[in-house]
Amino acid sequence: MNKKRAQENADRQARLVAIQSKQRAGERKRNTLIFGGIGLVIVAIIVAVAIVIVGQIQENNRLEDLAAADIEGVETFEDLSANHVDGPVEYEQTPPVGGDHNAIWTNCGVYTEPIPNENSVHSMEHGAVWITYPADAAQSEIDALTELVGSRTYVLLSPYEGQEAPVMASAWGLQLSVDGADDERLAAFLEKYVQGEQTREPGAACSGGINPSA
Length: 214
Prior knowledge:
Layout: H1 2-68, E1 75-76, E2 109-110, H2 117-125, E3 129-134, H3 139-149, E4 155-160, E5 167-171, E6 174-178, H4 184-193
């Protein structure tokens, strides 16, 4: 009788060991699938990030190449005065690209209302690029320009009353007209002339001035 009970206990123990072994094998298989899936996701993320980074590097290099050459369509204006004056100034260019200006500059940034010429010309003297669009521009175009400007410093973006060209980019003594934000010359203009060689007062601030509207 004791032998029979002992045998039954041994059989039960053997079945338990077999069940536990099967369970462990199943867990290992599930873990392999889970970790394998996680590994594939990680690899996919790494590949996607690498593609984005490489693409951005290529785009930056392309813009640098465009900026290094003469940008087609850029007009140059010389012999611009640069006196600090009170009151309004009549500028020959619209928007202005330089000349006498207010002693206080416009803070660089994105504006949804027109900003004063006299203060914004001072910003350009400090190396800012001023991008303007007509007051009736489509919101999609304004959004695209805002995205293009992004977090760049030394850039002004605003509507400009009476402007006929869809988009204009102005720096001290320089101006470019394009048909839209997607024109690659606009990005090249920013690359070349934000704090570019035309800057009359390199290192001067584009903050701490006036913030006329936002």
